[in-house]
Amino acid sequence: MSHYIRSQPPGATYFFTARLADRNSTLLTDRIELLRQVTRLTRQRYPFEIDAVVILPAAIHTLWTLPRGDADCSIRWRFLKSAFSRAVPTAEDHPNVKKVRTDKGIWQRHFWEHRIRSPQDLALHRTLIHTAPVQAGLVDDPSDWAWTSLHRDMAVAHPATYPEPPKPFGALKLKNPAPS
Fold it and tell me: What pLDDT sits at residue 107?
């Protein structure tokens, strides 16, 4: 088993990418309500703030701020991934990926993390999150992607345009596509 040495000051903000084992899967967007539910459950058990997030069909990019005195991001990802995996019916398992006995083979085993070190670093990673659906070729404009905190961030930045206070990401519903 790998042992990673990480710089984890308590209460820090991190950028994460977690991917499904099958990069062609659409499981995360197909099961978005389940993902929201296990994210809420994870936050109840192991508190953290979601500063920004985008859910792509087979990946999550997110910024999390951990509470002061807590630097354990791995336990949060372990809990979130395992809760999601346990709730997905066996028929949706991915048999063609290498698995261990306790693994359904849905997620890649590790996640990528980067500790945010400055306001510029935060802005760069927030932009990466907001533009990820465009970079992935899923939409032409970031605001056309339903599963992103960009909508919440725009409401905060432009309150005259968005008179209602922004909803937490977990409360966002599917965005209605504009008629073509």
Answer: 92
